[in-house]
Amino acid sequence: MQTNSPGTDPWRPRLKGHPYLGDVYSLTGRGWYVFPITPEDKTPLPGFKWSELATTYHDVLMDNWMDGDNIGIACKQSGLLVLDFDIRHNADCVDAMLDLLDTDDPQTYRTMTASGGQHWYYRNHGDLGNSPGSLPYGIDVRGGRGDGGYVLGAGSYVITDSYSGPYTVIDNDDANELPEEIRRLLREPRRHKTPAEQRRGMRIMSPGHLRLYKKQLLKAILDAPDGEQNSTINTSAFKAGMLVSEGMWELEDAQEELSLAAYEGNHPKWRAASTIRSGLWSGMGSK
Q1: Quick check: helix, strand or coil at residue 80?
Q2: Spatial distance between the Cα atoms of 75 and 90, rounded to a whole number of angstroms
Q3: Whose CA is closest to 165, among 117, 213, 215, 212?
Q4: Phi/psi of residue 172, nearest 5 degrees
Q5: Are 275 and 255 contacting, i.e. CB atoms less than 8 angstroms apart?
Q6: What does the longest C-alpha to C-alpha distance in the chain come to?
Q7: 150-152 and 139-142 strand pairing
């Protein structure tokens, strides 16, 4: 990249002295392009064109990095494809991938995220997009086509309303070649799970994952835009009905909480009540 050479003007307003940059240099030493992220956050600095200005030049970093900045890694520019495991969406996504690979050690550079998830780093040859394909639910991809996206590097620290913590190294290996099994799954189009497959997934949910899943169903109703309200209520109620039939949600509780979400989302009461009843019964009877 030519835009990240020393003296690049957009960096100059960041001039603030010389903070400790050991964690940053450990990443640039791997040839990875980095840029500053808002302290204690996951977003780039306002107005900072990270995809153009991410750099490996130590002089630029030394002159412009500020104490407390988190570390962004530009995946595509760094030649990386990163798998992002979000255990808030699927507590078992890491174990599911290890099972698919039939190993306890994927033998590549890995980090633990602030929320307890993981990032697995692989070499990127530019032949894959950002779609997770048919990877297990809860896994996203960074480094594909377009700007490729970014991840936070080890040494970052994030504070949110629901979690806080550091990004730390789990495995300090090199970023290795993407296993063929993962490559195959990434190339497969994601398909909708059958009710039977969804039920199998529900049965292995941890208590924390189940609570989060219920909250997601209710939040989808609350956030449903005009024109999509009825279909969203029906989808959430259908999935809630499956939980009811599996003994994971009392019918009366599910109906009450779904109705409350619909009312708080300003959905028409008469239509919401009918859709919730229909969706619940359909979900309970699905196979």
Answers
A1: strand
A2: 23
A3: 117
A4: -90, 20
A5: no
A6: 66
A7: unpaired
Instruction: Convert the pLDDT of each residue in 4-63 to its tens digit.
Output: 544 445 554 444 455 678 999 999 999 999 999 999 999 998 888 999 999 999 988 888
Coil, helix or strand for 170?
Answer: strand
190-213 confidence digits (pLDDT tens): 655 667 777 787 888 888 888 888
Phi, psi of 2 (to 5 degrees): -85, -20
Side chain identity at residue 26, one-letter code: S
**DSSP conformational letter for 136:** P
Q: How far is CA 165 from CA 41, 94, 116, 156, in A?
A: 11, 19, 8, 9
Q: Which domains does the chain have, with CATH numbers?
A: 9-187 (3.30.2250), 195-285 (no CATH)
Helices (H), 93-206: 93-101, 180-187, 195-203
CB 106, CB 120: distance < 8 Å: yes
Q: Which two tokens stand for residue 230?
A: 């009825």
Burial class of residue 159 (count of CB atoms within 10 Å of its CB; 0-12, 13-18, 19+): exposed
- Which residue bears the tokens 């530019």? 126
